[in-house]
Amino acid sequence: MQSNTPAPPVELIDQNGDTVRLTDFGGQIVVMYFGYTYCPDLCPTTLAAVDQALNRMGDGADEVQVVMVSVDPDRDSPEALGTYLANFNDDFIGLTGSPEDLIQVATVYGVAFQAEEGDVDSGYLVNHTANLVVIDKEGFLKLVMPPLVPADDLAADLEYLL
Questions:
Q1: What is the DSSP letter of 140?
Q2: Among 24, 13, 22, which residue's Cα sits nearest to residue 81?
Q3: Residue 95: CB atoms within 10 Å
Q4: Fold designation for 11-155
Q5: Phi, psi of 20 (to 5 degrees)
Q6: Going by C-beta distance under 8 Å and a sequence separation of 6 or more, which residues neighbour residue 74?
Q7: According to the model, what pLDDT value does residue 34 have?
Q8: Would you list the domain boundaries of the chain?
């Protein structure tokens, strides 16, 4: 079944401090994930599985761009995102922005997030929707997958979209 739902626009700051738009990835499949660098379990597990899926794809992985949008702008500076994502794959891109910008992007993608009690000094967790959103090469929404999708399943779905 073909989806003709265009992916909502995204314009945020990447780990290099540059403005990035979703349209910058035209011609690539985009796997977008909403998470944060201090996440103790779900985010690192999901990002590791996405990296494993790309490794299973061989050369096809070159046509996939993974983007993590921060849900924790108080702690996830561009530099922190870059350092964190390099632990999984040097090609993953981290995006952040003002709290207002992140709320706007998350809302249009059906993502909710809320910090628990605490502050930057004491630490806190952020409850968040952790689905993977897959956008095809033409910029249409194609899949929403659970965060702990097995790497083999994700690789197969991405290869199908190629």
A1: B
A2: 13
A3: 25
A4: Glutaredoxin (3.40.30)
A5: -125, 135
A6: 115, 120
A7: 94
A8: 11-155
